[in-house]
Amino acid sequence: MKSWRPLPEQVDLLQNIVEAASELLRDAPGAAAVPELAAAPAAAALAVPSAPTAQEAPAFSPPERPVRKVQIEAAPKAKAPEAAQTDDDPKNRETQAKAAVCRSQSEPPDMTASLEKAPTALKHFLDARSVSAIAEGFRYLLKCVELHEEESGKVHGKEVLPYQKIRSLPGLPWKAQQVWQLLDAQVKKEDHQAKPLQGKSLAVVGAGPVGLRIALQLKLAGAAVTVLEKRCEFVRINRLHLWDWVKQDLIQWGAKIFSPPGGTFGADKDYCHIGISELQYLLLKCCLLFGVTVELGVEFRDVVVRSGGWVAETEPPLVPQELRVDALVCCDGAASRIAKSKGAATIAGGLGKEGQAIGVVANFLNGKTSSERNLRQFSWARQFNTELFKKLKDKVGADLQNIVYYRGDESHYMIMTPSKQCLVEKGCLHTADSLDGAPLLRAENVELDNLKSLAQEVAVHFGLPTEFTPEQSVMIFDFSDTKRHEQAMLFQDGEASTPPLAISLAGDALLEPFWPTGLGCIRGFLGAMDAVSCLGTWFKTKDREQALGKAEAAYRQLKSVDAQTKDMTLKPENEWRVEPHTRYRHM
């Protein structure tokens, strides 16, 4: 009988199965009595001398360091020539010192790359759950690419995307092939062949889910893209309701391969959702693999004309060279500060009157017990289940209009809409009235401890855990008044010899959704494609009126998208492309 020798990819598969089983057993009750499976890795059990065991594989551990400003880019930027300065000038000394601080915060620490560690580094990158871990893992992989180029003598061209460089590294696990196939499929889509933004430089302000998603779309359209985000980490753990198209879009971007969200993403056919930071981590990883430059801890201030072109001014300033832009995309949240500063008019929507719709969010720790895994998710509205809400009010004193519960891997997410009077009666609000124009939910009017107690009482009623997550316990917000801008696109004029700067709005910066409708992601992602299409029209035709007309027509359709009217406003999802007329029925 011939001896069987597994193929390398079969060894990788078995190793991953053993690793997954080890993690499950460690989390299971009585895990202390379970022997360590890592002591008998798949490769060793199959007696394959050429395959290193899990214990022999070199370890990769991203260095721990405080995050103040993080610059992540696909390749080092060329240093700008230094201007002649004299140390006698105090202003020059101050500028040099500030630039040195920025450099020290943005440049990665020295690390010696090893090709043997590349497979482990890739696994860390795919599974990273913090910005700093993602950044260090990505930088290490790029160093491995440089080392491999030196050793092999094969240097990649500038047009090669980072993921295409990383895939050339030897010994990568089978999971990597799944990532490359998905990213290849994105590049090969018919929509992405024309490259209407080739040679253009665009800045996206805001690294929320929509900002990162539009950055990917701009990159696929051929642009050089830089994302500017004033925060250094992604900390929002609230969960977003997803339409089926958004779910499928994220799966095509690797939602079932990258962790988070991981292989269970979208498994519940009734309730598809994702944590905000989980979605940001997924899209950030894809952005880096596609060559988008991400500047975290950098706040956008303005755009100015300098040397015949537009330059983005930031705090701290970008070093060693400034960021020149051909267009700007604002994804800086509701009531966009940038859009307002550029003259965009804001319109109030929603219910209008303050306090008419108040939401309370609670995040409870997921202990990953069997009872927690069996909890049923739900979404109830009073009008469809009056008996349930009556019982809740009688037992707990909570007078609600809606309640939603989603189970995440790390937390249990509950959001409810109590009446203003209920919050006063439970001691969560001191008064139901606004004083001298001050917001109803001002800090001094909210009793946080009582709000926590109310959330826990409701959680107990529904059989949910009650230990709050350390990142975020409860929060209260008023969604009675939503805001939107009149225009999805506008232009800023510069000097006579400088072309106007196109400015597109997307996400909440364009159209803040009414929370109960769950429209944030679908409208944000559709608006992202609208923005890319309109920018493409502008750069192709240089006809301002044509670009603005297209943006206005698409925005008119976007505003009417909701769950009740989607069949009347949207075409079948299999027809959707970047161009608005492929998605909206009345374009």
Automatic annotation (TrEMBL):
It comes from the Eukaryota. InterPro entries: FAD/NAD-bd_sf, Rossman_Mical. Residues 42-54, 73-84 have a biased composition (Low complexity). Pfam families: Rossman_Mical (PF25413). Residues 357-460 form the [F-actin]-monooxygenase MICAL1-3-like Rossman domain. Residues 42-112 are annotated as: Disordered. This is [F-actin]-monooxygenase MICAL1-3-like Rossman domain-containing protein.
